[in-house]
Automatic annotation (TrEMBL):
Signal peptide: none
Gene: xerC
Organism: Micromonospora sonchi
Biological-process GO terms, alphabetical: DNA integration; DNA recombination
Region (Disordered): 108-130
Official protein name in the record: Integrase
Entry keywords, A to Z: DNA recombination, DNA-binding
Taxon lineage: Bacteria, Bacillati, Actinomycetota, Actinomycetes, Micromonosporales
CDD domains the record matches: DNA_BRE_C
Length: 340
């Protein structure tokens, strides 16, 4: 420890969250940081000898042994992915404290970290579902007080044809679309602040141009400046998280495909559909990694493995394939030996 070994953990958590706020994390992410830090800290205070109120817990008390006990208690009723996320948050917290010279080292390598399985991709079900969804949005079907099909199609197309996350969609600016016609690209601010460039094919380019033209007609050219948010609501205000989720849900409902959307992957199902179709069309893990902005090649490889497994299941379900079973296993009533 350096000069502040006895500073209160709750105060240091606030310092860390303030520093993280400069990176512009989403409110959801910032709340998750606070929850993981506060929950584990409270367990550590409870398990300390003697037990302490959380406000009295000092950073010098957080030994690897106490942190292991706190994380063991934390893990009793939580999934491995939740425990892993909390471990990463605490690892970042201690890395911050080391950089600030509050502590001399990071104890988290001495705390076991579960290896959570990669989540299984959850694309839209049904071969024609993406096309059906886009066609419905383009027609402006359903009872809408103020239909705006050009905007709805643009949102769906950015997720289905560029694989953007919800946070990435909300961060787009009009000026994010750059380059000459035929060479368009989209500058995306990815997860963890990692930027990437997405190629924009002519059809997607036309959809975005149609949307921006409709926006000029609705609100005037001054609302389509390069620094203006790309996606706005029906009042011309920037779309927010809840509004974007509601928009996509209403598109599902109007297209009548609610039963084809995997549970727990509403908007993210569009991104998963983009990645799955890349894998089905022969894209390699490295290409998928670059296009989706994955930090790990394993996440991208997961789409290829799942696609290969689905293809094998489809072949196995083929009735002609099943008919071969009796021919080679000598089932009663079936010919045995060589077939010729």
């Amino acid at each position: 420890m350096h000069d502040k070994p006895d500073k209160a953990v709750v105060a240091l958590i606030e310092d860390f969250l303030t520093a993280r706020a400069t990176r512009k994390p989403s409110p959801h992410t910032q709340a998750a940081y606070r929850r993981d830090l506060s929950t584990v800290a409270a367990l550590a205070a409870e398990l300390a000898t003697p037990p302490l109120p959380l406000d009295d817990l000092r950073i010098g008390a957080l030994s690897p042994r106490l942190l292991r006990a706190a994380f063991a208690r934390f893990a009793t009723d939580r999934a491995a992915a939740s425990v892993g996320r909390a471990w990463s948050t605490w690892n970042g917290f201690f890395s911050f404290l080391v950089a600030e010279q509050v502590v001399t080292g990071n104890p988290m390598p001495g705390v076991g970290r579960p290896r959570a399985p990669l989540p299984e991709p959850k694309p839209l079900r049904g071969e024609d579902t993406p096309e059906r969804l886009l066609a419905s949005a383009a027609r402006g079907e359903g009872r809408q007080r103020d239909p705006w099909p050009e905007r709805d199609v643009a949102v769906l197309a950015l997720a289905l044809c560029a694989g953007l996350r919800l946070s990435e969609l909300l961060a787009l600016r009009v000026g994010s679309l750059a380059g000459r016609p035929g060479e368009r690209r989209l500058e995306v601010s990815g997860k963890g602040g990692r930027p990437r460039m997405m190629p924009v094919e002519p059809d997607l380019d036309a959809v975005l141009a149609d949307y921006l033209d409709s926006r000029r007609r609705r609100f005037g050219s001054r609302t389509v400046r390069p620094d203006s948010p790309l996606l706005v609501d029906r009042h011309g205000e920037p779309l927010r998280r809840g509004g974007l989720q509601y928009l996509v849900e209403s598109c599902y409902r109007r297209a009548g495909i609610g039963d084809r959307v995997p549970r727990g992957a509403r908007l993210h199902a569009l991104r998963h559909t983009f990645a799955t179709r890349l894998a089905e069309d022969g894209a390699g893990a490295a290409e998928i990694m670059r296009l989706l902005g994955h930090a790990s090649l394993a996440s991208s490889q997961n789409y290829i493995e799942v696609t290969a497994g689905q293809q094998r299941e489809a072949v196995r379900a083929n009735r002609t394939n099943r008919a071969l079973v009796g021919l080679v296993r000598g089932q009663p009533g079936r010919p045995t030996g060589r077939v010729g």
